[in-house]
Design goal:
heterodimer, A: Porin, two-stranded antiparallel ribbon, elongated, B: 451 residues, alpha/beta, Rossmann fold, 4-stranded parallel sheet, 18 helices
Chain lengths: 446, 451
C-alpha cells in the first residue's frame, strides 16, 4: 500500500513536469539530479543517491534501505542570433523568448541484501527554442518555436557482487513529444514585399520504446573507484503526428493561398517520423583525496551519429521534409569535486567541456548548438538522518558560432543541390547562447 | 583547514566567479561573399521579353509551344540545380490573337487543317480563367515573363493591358497578374526572383508594329532610336541595380538583338509573292515585301491593285531597316559598356537562314514535300513571324553559345532534330473547300499579333 502511494506521488510529479524541455549538448540534458549537476555531472563513479538510476544504477547496490529522491532543475536558456550582412548593409537579429524548463529527476530505490531495485524518471533529451517576434524572425521558415521533450522511465536492478563490485541492468522506457511551428513564406514581386502565407504546426507523440541500461561500479582500492554507465541508443517512432496548415496570407492573397492549401489536400494532415537518440556511455574514475575531499573525472561518449536526419513523412511530396542533421559522436569531459565541511555540509563544484556533436550546416533556429564550457557549484545539507537538501547552480556557456565560413554559408550537399549557392531557408549568421541551470534536490530516507 | 581544503575552497570560489563571469554576448554580424562564378549563374533564371520570349507560336500562346520557348529550353540545359522554372502555361487550344467566330469566345492558336490555316479551337471567355490559365495561382512571378506584344517601354512601365502600349492586350493581365502581385512591372517581377541569369530580348515590337501595319513611321509606329536606347539601357541598369541591391549578387544578363524583318517569312519578297499568288499582283506602291496574309485577302476577292497597307515599299523598308540597324548598334554599345551584360546576335543568326528552307513558310513547303517534312524543315511557325519549336531551339542554342563563351561554362546544345513541331496540333481534318490558304480569321490573327 505504501508502495502504491509512492508510485502515485511519482506519477503526480511526472504529470506536473512531464513536458519540461530544455537546451542540452546536442539536445541532451545530462542534468538528472541536483547533486550530480553540482559535480558537473561527474557522478558515474560516485552514484550515491537515487539519481544513480540515470548516472550508474550499479551505485544503488552500495546504498542502504530505501529512499525517495526528488529533483527539479529549472533550465533557463537564452540564445541570440545576428544575421549575416545583407546586400543593403543591414543585418537581421533575433533573440529567444524568456523561458524556463523544469527538468525532473524523480527516483525511488529499495535495498534488500545484495539486490537493490529502483525506478527513476528523468528527461535526458529535450529542446525548447522559441524566437521572439515570429512574424519577423528571419528563421521562421525553419522554426519559430520548437519543443521536444523525452521522458525516460527506468526500472533497474543492482547486484552487489561483493563488497567492492556491483553490476546493474535496467530498462529505459521512453517516449517523446515534438512540436514544431514554422511559416511558409512567399516573395511577391516588386519592392521588398515578402509575405507569410501559411502557418505550419507539426505535432506528434511517440510510442513507448524500450532499450537496456547497464552499470558497473568497482571499488579498486579504498580511495579509487571506477564506474561505468551505458544507456542504449533509441529510435522513437511517431506514427500519429499531425500537421496543420493555417492560411495567414494578407487579404489580397487569401484566395490564392486557400487554393494552394486545397491543392496540398487541405489544412489537416497526418504523418509519421522517427527521432533517433544517441547512446550514452560514461567511463568514470573517482578518487578520495582525503577523508573529506573527493574528486571525479568522467568521460562520456554520446553516439550522436545515430541522429542522422529528421524525416517528416506526411505521404505528400509537397509536405514531406527531411531535416538533415548528420551529427557526430562526441566525448564529453566532466570534472567534479566535493568537500565535506562537516558531517552535515558538503560543498561541490564541477566543470564540463562539452564539444558539440552538431555539424555547422545543421546549426539552425531549431537548435543553434556550439561547444560549451559549463561551471557548476552546489551545496548539500543533511538536516537529519532522513532528510537531505541539495542546491546547485550551473552556468552553461556556449561559444559563439557562425555558419558562415570564408564568406560562404556552410550547408549540406542536399541543400546545395536544392538551393544552389543560396539563399537558404536556414539563415546565415552567428549564434550565441547561454543557459542557467538551477537545481534543488530533496532526498528522503524511509 | 588543511592546505588542500583551502585550495579546494579556493577552487570552488573560482568556479563560482567564472560561472558568474559568463554571459550572453550578441554576436557581431558576419559578412557573406555574394560573388558568383561559372555554373552558379545557372541557379535561378528569369526571362524578360515579348512574344518571342513567351514561346508565342502559331499566332498564340499554348502549352504545346510554350514548353519549347527558348527560355524553357535554356532552363532545361541549365541543369542539375533543381530550381523551378515557371511559365504562364495555357492549355489547348490556347489563346490566340485571332478574331473568334463568336465574340463570346477566345480564339485558340492557328493550325494547319490539311488545306490551309485555321483556328484550332475556341474557348468561351467565361471558361478561360478556369480552363486555360493553368499556372494562374503560382504565388511568385513567372520565370518566363515574356509578354506577347510588349514593347521596350512596356518592360519598365506596363502593369496590365490598360497601362501597356497595346491596350486590350490581355496577355499583360494574365502574365503580370497585377494587382495580385503588388502592381509591379516586368523588371521588378524579375528582380523579385533574385535571378542569377537573365535573358532579355526586347525591341522587336518597337519596329514590327509599324512593319506589320504596312506604314512604319518613326515616332508613330516605330520607336525613335534615342528613346529605344535610353529605355534599353535603363532596363539593364534597373535589373542589375535591383538584383544587387536586393539579393547581393550581380546577375549575368544576356540580351538578344533585333532581327531584320527580311528574316521572317511573314514578309514575302514581291517576286516570291507573285509566284505564290500564281500571277503578278499589281500594287498601289512599288512593293519590296508583301505581307503574307495578303494571299488570303486576294483569295477572298479583295480588289487589286493591292492597297498599300499590304505592302512595304523601299522607303518603308528603309525606315524599318534603319531602325533595326540603329537599335542593334545601341544594343551592342550598351552591352560593351557593361561588365555583366553579353550579346546574342539573333539578327545575324536569323539572317543566315536559307529563305527557301529554314526561313520558308510552312505553306510554301507543304505542297511539295508534305506536312512532316515541311514541319521539320522550317524554323518558323504558321504565323510566319514567330519561330516554331525548332526555331526556338535555334535561339536557345544561340543564347547557350553566348553564355558558355561569357561565363566559361560548358552547357550542352539543344538537339534541334529532337524538337518536333506539329502544325496540325493533331487536329488534321479532311481538306474542305476553302476561299484561300488562310481563313479570314487566321489572317486577322496574323494582323492582330502586334497591335
Amino acid at each position: 500500500m505504501e508502495g502504491t502511494k509512492r508510485l502515485l506521488l511519482i506519477a503526480g510529479v511526472v504529470c506536473l513536469l512531464g513536458t519540461g524541455t530544455a537546451l542540452g549538448a546536442g539536445f541532451n540534458i545530462y542534468e538528472a539530479g541536483a547533486k550530480a549537476t553540482a559535480l558537473g555531472g561527474a557522478f558515474t563513479a560516485t552514484a550515491d543517491d537515487g539519481s544513480a538510476i540515470f548516472y550508474n544504477p550499479a551505485g544503488l547496490a552500495f546504498l542502504e534501505g530505501s529512499a525517495l529522491d526528488l529533483n527539479l532543475m529549472p533550465v533557463v536558456p537564452t540564445a541570440e542570433f545576428t544575421g549575416a550582412v545583407q546586400p543593403d548593409g543591414s543585418h537581421a537579429s533575433g533573440k529567444t523568448v524568456d523561458q524556463s524548463f523544469p527538468i525532473p529527476g524523480v527516483y525511488y530505490y529499495q535495498n534488500s541484501g545484495d539486490l537493490t531495485w529502483g525506478v527513476g524518471i528523468c528527461a535526458p533529451f529535450g529542446l525548447g527554442v522559441e524566437w521572439e517576434d515570429p512574424d519577423n524572425w528571419i528563421g521562421r521558415a525553419v522554426s519559430y518555436d520548437v519543443d521536444l521533450a523525452t521522458i525516460y522511465i527506468t526500472p533497474a536492478l543492482a547486484w552487489k557482487v561483493n563488497e567492492d563490485v556491483a553490476l546493474s541492468l535496467g530498462v529505459d522506457a521512453a517516449f517523446t513529444e515534438i512540436e514544431l511551428n514554422r511559416r511558409m513564406l512567399t516573395d511577391f514581386g516588386g519592392g521588398n514585399a515578402s509575405y507569410d502565407v501559411v502557418d505550419v504546426q507539426i505535432e506528434g507523440e511517440s510510442k513507448m520504446n524500450f532499450t537496456p541500461v547497464a552499470g558497473a561500479m568497482i571499488k579498486a582500492t579504498d580511495k579509487l573507484t571506477f564506474g561505468l554507465m551505458y544507456h542504449h541508443e533509441k529510435t522513437l517512432q511517431i506514427d500519429d503526428g499531425t500537421l496543420e496548415l493555417a492560411n495567414i496570407a494578407p487579404a489580397f492573397l487569401e484566395a490564392n493561398v486557400d487554393a494552394l492549401i486545397a491543392g496540398l489536400g487541405g489544412t489537416e494532415h497526418e504523418g509519421s517520423t522517427e527521432l533517433n537518440l544517441p547512446h550514452m556511455l560514461s567511463l568514470a574514475v573517482a578518487y578520495q583525496l582525503t577523508e573529506k575531499a573527493r574528486v571525479e573525472f568522467d568521460a562520456v561518449h554520446f553516439g550522436w551519429s545515430h541522429f542522422e536526419e529528421l524525416r517528416l513523412d506526411f505521404g505528400n511530396e509537397d509536405l514531406n521534409s527531411t531535416i538533415p542533421e548528420h551529427y557526430d559522436d562526441v566525448w564529453q569531459l566532466r570534472f567534479g569535486a566535493a568537500y565535506d565541511v562537516n558531517e552535515k555540509l558538503t560543498l561541490m563544484g564541477g566543470y564540463v567541456r562539452d564539444e558539440s556533436p552538431q555539424p555547422t550546416a545543421s546549426m539552425s533556429p531549431l537548435l543553434p548548438d556550439a561547444n560549451r564550457n559549463d561551471y557548476s557549484i552546489g551545496v548539500q545539507y543533511r538536516l537529519n538522518d532522513r532528510l537531505t537538501l541539495t542546491g546547485t547552480y550551473m552556468g552553461v556557456n556556449f561559444e559563439e558560432r557562425t555558419n558562415v565560413v570564408g564568406g560562404t554559408q556552410v550547408v549540406f550537399p542536399d541543400e546545395e543541390e536544392e538551393y544552389g549557392s543560396g539563399p537558404y531557408p536556414n539563415p546565415a549568421g552567428s549564434y550565441d547562447s547561454y543557459a542557467d541551470i538551477f537545481g534543488i534536490g530533496i532526498g528522503y530516507r524511509f | 583547514m588543511t592546505k588542500f581544503t583551502k585550495t579546494l575552497l579556493g577552487g570552488v570560489t573560482l568556479l563560482a566567479l567564472l560561472a558568474a563571469g559568463c554571459s550572453l554576448d550578441t554576436p557581431d554580424p558576419v559578412t557573406l561573399d555574394y560573388t558568383l562564378e561559372g555554373a552558379e549563374y545557372f541557379e535561378s533564371y528569369a526571362a524578360i521579353g515579348n512574344s518571342l520570349t513567351a514561346g508565342f507560336m502559331d499566332g498564340g500562346l499554348v502549352m504545346n509551344g510554350q514548353v519549347n520557348s527558348y527560355p524553357q529550353l535554356l532552363a532545361s540545359v541549365l541543369g542539375a540545380k533543381s530550381f523551378t522554372f515557371q511559365q504562364p502555361l495555357i492549355a489547348f487550344p490556347g489563346i490566340g490573337s485571332s478574331t473568334p467566330s463568336d465574340p463570346a469566345n477566345a480564339a485558340g492558336v492557328l493550325h494547319f487543317d490539311g488545306a490551309g490555316i485555321s483556328i484550332v479551337g475556341e474557348t468561351p471567355l467565361v471558361d478561360v480563367q478556369s480552363n486555360l490559365l493553368l499556372a494562374m495561382l503560382y504565388p511568385v512571378p513567372y520565370n518566363n515573363l515574356g509578354v506577347p506584344g510588349a514593347t521596350t517601354w512596356d518592360v519598365s512601365n506596363a502593369l496590365d493591358s490598360s497601362t501597356s502600349q497595346s491596350p486590350g492586350n490581355s496577355y499583360f493581365d494574365f502574365i503580370l497578374r497585377n494587382p495580385t502581385l503588388g502592381n509591379v512591372n516586368m523588371i521588378d517581377q524579375a528582380i523579385a526572383l533574385g535571378p542569377k541569369l537573365v535573358t532579355c530580348w526586347i525591341g522587336n515590337n518597337d519596329i514590327l508594329g509599324g512593319a506589320t501595319s504596312g506604314e512604319p513611321v518613326v515616332g508613330v509606329s516605330v520607336t525613335p532610336t534615342a528613346n529605344f536606347t535610353a529605355m534599353f539601357e535603363a532596363i539593364l541598369d534597373d535589373l542589375t541595380d535591383g538584383v544587387e541591391g536586393r539579393h547581393g549578387h550581380t546577375p549575368a544578363i544576356f540580351v538578344g538583338n533585333v532581327p531584320s524583318i527580311a528574316s521572317a517569312p511573314y514578309f514575302v519578297p514581291k517576286a516570291l509573292f507573285d509566284v505564290m499568288a500564281g500571277n503578278p499582283i499589281p500594287c498601289d506602291e512599288d512593293a519590296v515585301f508583301v505581307r503574307f496574309p495578303a494571299l488570303s485577302y486576294l483569295a477572298a476577292g479583295g480588289p487589286v491593285p493591292l492597297p498599300e497597307e499590304w505592302t512595304l515599299d523601299a522607303a518603308e523598308v528603309g525606315v524599318v531597316d534603319t531602325a533595326v540597324t540603329e537599335y542593334n548598334a545601341a544594343i551592342a554599345a550598351a552591352v560593351a559598356a557593361r561588365d555583366n551584360v553579353w550579346l546574342y546576335d539573333a539578327n545575324a543568326v536569323l539572317a543566315g537562314l536559307d529563305p527557301n528552307t529554314a526561313a520558308a513558310h510552312f505553306l510554301a513547303l507543304v505542297g511539295t514535300v508534305g506536312i512532316e517534312t515541311a514541319a521539320a524543315t522550317t524554323y518558323f511557325s504558321l504565323d510566319g513571324i514567330h519561330p516554331n519549336n525548332r526555331g526556338y531551339g535555334l535561339v536557345a542554342n544561340g543564347f547557350i553559345d553566348a553564355i558558355n563563351a561569357a561565363l566559361g561554362t560548358t552547357l550542352p546544345q539543344i538537339d534541334i532534330g529532337a524538337l518536333i513541331w506539329d502544325p496540325t496540333y493533331g487536329q488534321l481534318t479532311p481538306p474542305a473547300k476553302r476561299d484561300g490558304l488562310i481563313t479570314p480569321e487566321a489572317a486577322s490573327a496574323m494582323d492582330a499579333i502586334f497591335r
